[in-house]
## 1
Amino acid sequence: MKTWLKERIGNPGLFTGRKKEIAYFLNWIERIKPELSQSTAILSRRKTGKTALLQRLFNMVFEKNDRVIPFYYEIREADRWLGDFAEDFFLSFIYQYIAFKTRKIEYLSSLRPRNFELAYEISGKEGLDFLKDPIRGMQVRSEKEQADMMWDIARDLPRGIAEHTDERVVQMIDEFQFLNRFIFRDKSCKDRIANHAGTYLGTAEYKNAPMLVTGSWVGWLSRDLLSMLPGRFLFHYLEKLPEYEAMEMVLKYSYLEDIPVTEEIIPLMTGLTEGNPFYIGSLFRSKYQEKDFTSMNGLLETLEFETLHREGGIKGTWMEYVSYALKESNDIHAKKIVLYLSKNRKREVTRDEIRDKLNLEMTDSELEKKLKILINADIIEQGRGNFYYRGVPDNIFDKVFRGVYADEIESFDPKDITNEYKAIIENLQRNNKRLQGEYSHFKGKFAEYRIIDNLRYRVKENQPRFRKMINGLPKNFEFVEYENIWSYSASPIHKRDIQVDIFARAKEDEYSLIGEVKHRKAKFTVKEAEAFFKKAGELMELESVKKAVLFVFSVSGFHKNTLEYLKKQGIAWTDNKNWFERSS
């Protein structure tokens, strides 16, 4: 899939999992065509993949080019005058719309100058003359500094264009909660528009241009939507990654960051991070100079650095939430509440229990107000009713918070954190024995990872050795420096469920590699070979691959009739275990 909008995640290969969410939202976007989808808010804390999901959906919908036009806009965490904000929002949509209609990626470039005159000129040049009137109308309001009218025009433009052209638009607005915090009526940015989100009260109801918004401050955004836009948005909470997706993410980061990880450490890392993509990424990108994911101690030391050290990325992100909450409610009682709920995070706690156990001398309304501040800051959670509360269900937040504030409340020894992490690891190791059967898929993934590791770093310089490790290669075959290597999944926009274990794309005149990997006790069968041959052909069609070698790695070997089929179809094969050993 072509990357039209540059994704903040960086290397597109780092995007992992979220298969359930992508499938759900692609169906949601498909239902925009008959005007059946309702505006939706995606909620989760910072760095859990919301922006990556929106930007990937943008590129998928843009690539599909099927009547639904994606519009992506991020509300930045910086003070802005309403007029400047409205102009930027308006021109962002105009340029993204022109890019979609012309299929010219240069209109999406952040380096391209954007102003009303250029937008007017480009609209005419590209045969989109109906854009000229709204551009001129917006320009007149801008010259007169009629900020409120500018925002009315900008906010309604996506819906208006969809109505005029009988098209559909999906409005993807990132960090929607900042509408009420960083937009001001005056240029000096002193008069904040605290109810700015409310201007979407009517706009959000339209089904020809529904909104897909995100928020990193879950309590804050929920409060704004429920109070200012009641009934306009469905809520979709972005959960942690399923275990198999988390393990796949560990393997991807290990490969792309060139940081070795052993088979034994992968389930421990996914268990300790509880499938949180931010935690996994933070471990691989940690500033800890001695990080090592080939031993339990190396993993533990890196996690402790991220949790307790002042330069830990995990600690830094959580402290943004904590600092906001304590700025709003800066007293020892708030810290005691968070610590108590964190210790008892496996159950819901009543307001009366909090008051009694912590000896809080305050009225019920005062306590409720303090608790709401902590909920809006996402460092505690609302329970099943207004009277119930619970700590954040996250082992790592608990340790970050205690590492910073526990000394103010009770004695604290950093060794306690170390011992708790060790206890979690011991429990995971016990469970690993129970889960051996469930890890068969993971063992195959690890074998893929090792083969990819060799293809990426070693085969080109060790041609004779690696060619001897695989049978049935063409006589003129050479391993090359591949443009991209990873497990292949066809984009959901193709509506074809194609999964190929290894796809190493080479230049057009060189052999690409398409591989199947089996790490199990059973031998590879003819039926599996036929299925692989078929999906490899579909991959070549979808990705326009004209020259490729197909190969199968099966650790337990092949049936005799399977080998006959592989030879007949020109598919290479191997059972040499050196392929998934980390070669020097």
## 2
Amino acid sequence: MNLVLCAYGHLPSGTADEEFENLYNTEIKPLISALDKFPRINMMLHYSGVILYWIERRHPEFFMLIEDLLSRKQMEFLGGGFYNPAFSLLPQADKNGQIEMLTDYLRKHFGKRPQGCWLPALAWEQNLVGPLNSYGMSYTFLEDLQFSAAGAEPYAEGVYLPCITEEQGKLITVFPVYGTLGKELSQGKPLEILGKFLEGFSQNDESHTMVIPVVKTDYENLFAELSKADPKVKFTCPSKFFKNLKSLKKAYFPGVWSGNETNPRQFLADYPEAGCIYAKMMNIHTLITNQLRGDKTRKRTAIKELWKAQDSGIFRLGSPSIPGLFHSPVRKAAYQSLLEAERIIREKKKFSPSLSVFDFDLDGEGEFIFQDDRLNCCIKTLGAGVFELDYLPCTWNYLDTLAVKTETLKGERRSAFVDWLAPAALQSEDIGTEGVKGGRFCGLEEFKVSDTDRVHRRVVFTLPPKPDLPWGEIEIVKTWQHKKNSLALEYVLRNTGTETMNFTFCTSVDLSFPGETDGFLRIYSLHEGEKEHIASNAHTIGNVKTLEFQDINNESIIVFESGRSFDGRLFHVHSGFPGHEEYQSTCVMPLFPVTLEAGKTWKTAFSLKISS
């Protein structure tokens, strides 16, 4: 039996430097050092370009040990995408570019092109065969469960044989990966476990191949034990034997993440936070293609920033210990790269303020996009609220947050200026991250576009009366206008019923900062030229008209101003994995008691201004 031990590692951009250092000291260095001591053990490794580049800068001497193992043919490096992208979600040009970038890096530093490719999360779509084949990748790897989903029949002891797969005339060999077995080997008694599998095989055959990921363990003890294995077990690398594989069966694999039967694209629909990053990624890809023709230097720089944002971690939940979508710094880093690419695209070109309408978030409906040389603001008709607010001078999306998944909000992403109609006797403790207790949430109701003025960059949205809903006689008209570095919003509430109505009107405004403590964020209430500091753990605010949010890291200031004084709630939103929730955004919810006679209107206005 060919036994292929493998290890892989990656950390997304935005991960703290100490986490890179921890990965290096607890996994990468111990594994490579142990491998050097046991010449019978061969391994294939895949480390993303992000990891290798970090090692090159921080521990360049370690490359000498890697080069020695490669020269002894005891180790094989696998290729892939430099920034560990979710290949199945990338445009063809980006697939090719990411593969070529890591291939060139490995060739330059270690003198040999990789022959095989490791796919992040073993995420597969059949159209990956072409780009992998075109860039010299002869083989790749999928989970044993993916072989089962493709209808492949196991040989002995549940072991699948390698196969070939095809797309538009291009071929690639696919090896099965046994993740469960890798965990068992690392937990103890590896020789007994291997012996069990060997009993099921009656003869030696190059086709009997098991690819086993080695999980974090005492590598020296593991390799010492495996070195005593039966001689029928050949610890090797695919590059040494795959050309001798004959008469492989053909299989076509469904598009899934590793260990997940869901198509990778479904993740974008299930988690709109990931869907919006993907949509932004597609938008930037189109801008680079259309607006940087003939300018190779700027195009190359912008493309590199785009590739940084294509990290597969964005399109997986991750875990408390593995950064993913639920890890705020990972999303922030993706947006910063995308906005940096957008800044590069705009260089050397006068950018005129504009209002445009197009399907920005790829949901089949047009969104209203306000833009000037510093600001992007995206508004949906659903709720007539802002779902993206980019400030280009610090490449920051102030609406990159993560929703608390509840039945009340139906898992939709949090936005700014989405509205509630609530009981007149509403108490402050009835308001929190899950919304307004007993209130009607208008953020998931469809507003109609009443008027669009592109010259003055103004849009009017109307939520018509809905008699079958609570406070259904109330019509809401929201007029958005984009001014220099700021947004203005006017509300008109009209009672279309026949009786006087008493209720509380509330709008919810989320803003996402690098952190919630005074080292990241300071909040002040402004009154007649005087500033009053608001403690970061404050929840109730009273008689406020203007709030100033000082973003310490980005050296920017956001001023939120209301046309009426208000009492309200101010709190931080935390979400993520149970027991490991982290800061996502800061929310202010002004409350206005309203009494409206039949046929009468009530008005207020807000503005949001960002400056450096």
## 3
Amino acid sequence: MISQKLLQNISFVKLRFISRHLIVACLFCASTWSQLASEAPAAVPSPARKDPLGRSTPRGTVLGFLIAAGKGDNQVAAQYLNTRETLKGGAPLAGQLYVVLNRRLPARLNEISDRPEGDATSLLKPDLYLVGIINGAGLDVTLERVEREDSGHIWLFSRTTLEAIPAVYEETHQVSVEDIFPAALVDNYLVGIPAYEWLFVFVGLPLIYFLTGLLNRLLLPVVGWVLNRLRRRTDQRPRQVLPQPIRLLMMAASIRWLLSEVGLSLIARQFWSTMATLITICGCVWLLILINRTTEQYSRNRLQSRPSSGAASVQRLIRRSIDLVFVFVGFLVMLRHFGISPTAALAGLGVGGIAIALAAQKTLENVVGGVSLILDEAVRVGDVLKVGEVTGTVDDIGLRSIRIRTLDRTMLVIPNGQLANMNLEVISCRDKFWFHPTITLRYETRSSQIASMTDAVRSLLTTHPHIDRDSVRVRFFQLATFSLNIEVFAYVVALDWNQFLRIQEDLLHGIMAIAQQVGVQFAFPSQTTYLVAEPNKKDSPVESLQAASAAR
């Protein structure tokens, strides 16, 4: 990294180079973050001497050379070359190297190592680092690590690369963008930035985006006509053919194409290449989010006929979770592009996730319980539910709680985590209703009357159109304390609870009419006491006991 002392010595701060130095600042920030995110060494090394020109790392050497040569200070730029020539003799070679790198080196400055030891995974020698390959010439631009008494271990452009630079320089005839634009745009500056660069940013990009919107409008009638022909409709017309994410991807592709056709400086190409990459990442994430939203709408339309608001809540939760995953993955890709290791971010996210999970344990429990209830479809909106001693109708199913409208017309809110561990009785889910009254007759009823009563009630049930005949059972089954009990057992086929109550009312009226016809009476809790006169003294004790009786 270029030190503060270097900035003070060679005075790089000029407004004319703000646009070109922006990418350099981004690369320096990325280098700092990557160093902070890297693993700590096992032992603390001794502090190394800092090079005033920032040549301690491969990235510092390349960027320092580009900035110095771009400013026109070739004598300073010559200090980044491993050559036997003096500073004055190496200045022309530095200028040729700058032209070659500036025109033909791939814009991958963010991938250059920022470690003092270089790239540990390189297949080259430990003291040799590959910066890139010159397009068309097959020249490997390499750095070699040397030791100087005043600066310690530093990275310089290798002698092998410098020997091939003059020949490659003669072959470099690419047209520069400054040769294309008029002199008025090249020589005039606004806030220290050439006018043609402002033209790229504030005119070129909006113009490309506007052209994609114009293309979208031109394609609307054509696509609508094709859809009408395929679906045999006359009113089918899409709202848009090229959504905004597709237009962003087209704009990024246009930038890539212009970079291959127009000769820009290396730092400018790095800047626009980074811009195209960021636009591509944003467009892809946006497109995936739109596809996810369309999928949710399609699923919601498929489930629209089912009365379950909880399913919509779960779909919304799943969609937002997937959207967050898309955004997070895009953020990691951006970090990776700038050379920042995402390991520290992932570790921090894991620790933060554990802390959030512990803090919101009850909330997560309710959410998980709600998702399980909705996915199992154990309860739906409109079901008559019995929870403990409470009976009511399910009014709404949320991710955190369920709302039940009780018979008293009050609203009962139960957390889903608690509801998932309770026994639920869904009354509205039964296919048949149980008709199970007990007919209690008085003890004065004769056996023939009981037989007539059971036969008549059985006939009433088997002939009723809403009674399941196979389930009918009428039996005299108990001599109770104060009554003779007849059990009535049958299942009623009804659509809802109100219809069952109407059918039950008719059956009870019929049973009462049969009791009146047979001449029996229903029993009620009673007690009979038998009084016996006091026995005579002449009576024996045995006779006295036989004369006494107890009542029930």
